[in-house]
């Protein structure tokens, strides 16, 4: 008993101590946004330290399962930084904990922080006091404030008795998520295990290419814009082992090559529709890809003319469409093979998009007979929805996305592959389709969207289909669209519904949007408060660029007038 009381005292002392080492500056307020906390890197230490406390508590609550912390601000400017927490399955932290995360980050003084933690552990039944272990894996990107913030996170984790922090080094966001997921599955979880899995499954995909299709070989050259972030660094490490591809990394993050996310990266190229820094006329006609600063976003592009720097863009919606076509094709081969009717693989395939998905992509996917559903913006919503299917494919237009397979589906696929491999059928189309799906489950990062693994799956599928960039780009034509940002006094005064496609408050705003939209052919427009910036976002689509611009502009005026 006395020992228990001592432990309890020690726990309180540690929490008070760490909170006084990272005081919250007056007037500072953190909100848990679409992807964790994000702000000027120099101001982030209190929030990151408290995220460390939170991650350790989360691990304690979940019987010591490993939880992850990534220190990154993704595509934001180099001066910013942020922190995201990964749950034991490798996905984003359970949303039910977000209010506590925000309250903890904003606790005004050490005593308030202690009381908050004590109340929370009581409510949640978390075994505080050092009798149980907790484990937190940490990773960070290449930002200059990363090391200092990593130390703040370590101090936060170490303030919880029984918690162990493991620094996994400088990583892409999806690498850390993959490590957390693998560790909790009891499989090898180091960086070299991650690379081996990617390289081997990519090789298997190429070994399974149809030999009899004919036609031109796909150009092997691929130029990757690494956004001067961590993704380019990692790709440089493995590119020599990727047979069948000739990868050139630009904006690779090497000293002197440029500034993180500045005039480069997936966010820049997708929004501006121009070439990133470091690309020029000699690259016309070459397949190119862009990653974002922490390599969880992927887009493709190609320059079509040397007279300007405009690009043809393949965004997340088209990557999703490519994955959907490929997976559906393999399922069709497996299930419609006349000679093996007894061997089928029933699978519910679901496509998950947000309101930002280009309307043409949704129409294309629905036209294929696929089930398409919508969630609010943010991977945490999309991923969760995708898990409801045997195979769930989700992407945001900006290039965040992945494919998830249910455990049940994977075990059925495994047993089907085993059955077929032991029969004369092992050279059949059905067997190859099953093997391709198996390789895809290994290649794609099922924890979270991953630009590196996504890129390799794209490349394998393009080779499988013998599609050039142009073939892919012409799958459907994007509807012209426009995104605008509006500064308002309080963006939280806008409340949305129906996966953010409608405004419920102020109600007069939705009436105005409807009235404006009705004036345009193929018009679609919605507004929502951003979860990462202090702005209201306006999105509009219409049959011409001029109309999309004009619709966005008139709705932005209404937002300004009502809330500015
Ligand atoms: C329109 C848009 O691109 N929104 C982005 C952006 O969220 P906002 O809540 O819109 O600020 O950042 C998120 C995190 O990176 C990303 O998931 C999302 O897609
Ligand atoms: Mg990112």
Automatic annotation (TrEMBL):
Alpha-D-phosphohexomutase C-terminal domain sequence ranges: 512-557
Any single GO BP term: UDP-N-acetylglucosamine biosynthetic process
Active site: 74 (phosphoserine intermediate)
Annotated ranges, domain Phosphoacetylglucosamine mutase AMG1: 189-298, 315-467
Catalytic activity entry: N-acetyl-alpha-D-glucosamine 1-phosphate = N-acetyl-D-glucosamine 6-phosphate
Keyword Metal-binding (UniProt): yes
Catalytic activity, EC: 5.4.2.3
CDD domains to which the protein is assigned, alphabetical: PGM3
Annotated pathway: Nucleotide-sugar biosynthesis; UDP-N-acetyl-alpha-D-glucosamine biosynthesis; N-acetyl-alpha-D-glucosamine 1-phosphate from alpha-D-glucosamine 6-phosphate (route I): step 2/2
Family from the record: Belongs to the phosphohexose mutase family.
Protein name in the entry: Phosphoacetylglucosamine mutase
């Amino acid at each position: 008993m006395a020992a228990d009381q001592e432990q309890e005292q020690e726990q309180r002392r540690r929490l008070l101590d760490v909170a006084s080492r990272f005081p919250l500056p007056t007037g500072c307020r953190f909100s848990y946004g679409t992807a964790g906390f994000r702000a000027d890197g120099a101001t982030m230490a209190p929030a990151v330290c408290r995220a460390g406390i939170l991650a350790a508590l989360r691990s304690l609550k979940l019987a010591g399962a490993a939880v992850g912390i990534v220190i990154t601000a993704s595509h934001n400017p180099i001066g910013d930084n942020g922190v995201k927490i990964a749950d034991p399955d490798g996905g984003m932290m359970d949303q039910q904990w977000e209010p506590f995360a925000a309250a903890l980050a904003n606790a005004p003084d050490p005593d308030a922080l202690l009381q908050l933690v004590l109340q929370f552990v009581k409510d949640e039944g978390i075994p505080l006091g050092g009798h149980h272990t907790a484990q937190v894996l940490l990773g960070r990107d290449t930002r200059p404030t990363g090391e200092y913030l990593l130390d703040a996170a370590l101090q936060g984790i170490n303030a919880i008795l029984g918690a162990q922090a493991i620094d996994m080094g400088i990583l892409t966001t999806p690498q850390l998520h993959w490590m957390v997921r693998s560790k909790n599955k009891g499989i090898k979880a180091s960086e070299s295990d991650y690379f081996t899995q990617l390289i081997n499954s990519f090789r298997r995909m190429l070994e399974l290419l149809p030999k009899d299709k004919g036609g031109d070989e796909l150009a092997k050259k691929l130029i990757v814009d690494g956004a001067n972030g961590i993704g380019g660094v990692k790709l440089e490490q493995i590119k020599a082992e990727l047979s069948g591809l000739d990868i050139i990394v630009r904006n690779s993050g090497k000293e002197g090559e440029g500034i993180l996310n500045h005039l480069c990266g997936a966010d820049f190229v997708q929004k501006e529709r121009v070439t990133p820094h470091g690309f020029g006329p000699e690259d016309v006609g070459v397949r190119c890809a862009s990653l974002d600063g922490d390599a969880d976003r992927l887009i493709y592009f190609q320059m079509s003319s040397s007279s300007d720097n405009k690009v043809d863009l393949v965004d997340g919606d088209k990557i999703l469409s490519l994955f959907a076509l490929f997976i559906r094709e393999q399922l069709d081969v497996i299930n419609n093979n006349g000679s093996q009717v007894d061997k089928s693989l029933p699978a519910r395939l679901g496509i998950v998009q947000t309101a930002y998905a280009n309307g043409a992509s949704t129409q294309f996917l629905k036209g294929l007979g696929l089930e398409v559903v919508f969630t609010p913006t943010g991977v945490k919503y999309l991923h969760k929805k995708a898990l409801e299917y045997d195979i769930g494919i989700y992407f945001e237009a900006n290039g965040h996305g992945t494919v998830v397979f249910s455990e049940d589906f994977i075990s059925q696929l495994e047993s089907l592959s085993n059955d077929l491999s032991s029969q004369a059928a092992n050279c059949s189309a059905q067997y190859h389709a099953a093997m391709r799906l198996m390789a895809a489950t290994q290649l794609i990062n099922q924890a979270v969207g991953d630009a590196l693994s996504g890129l390799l799956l794209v490349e394998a599928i393009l080779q499988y289909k013998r599609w050039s960039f142009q073939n892919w780009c012409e799958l459907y034509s994007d509807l012209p669209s426009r995104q605008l940002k509006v500064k308002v006094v309080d963006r939280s005064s806008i409340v949305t519904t129906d996966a953010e496609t409608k405004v419920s408050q102020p109600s007069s705003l939705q009436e105005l949007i409807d009235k404006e939209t009705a004036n345009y052919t193929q018009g679609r427009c919605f507004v929502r408060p951003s979860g990462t910036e202090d702005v209201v976002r306006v999105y509009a689509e219409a049959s011409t660029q001029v109309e999309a611009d004009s619709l966005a502009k008139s709705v932005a005026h209404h937002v300004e007038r009502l809330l500015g």
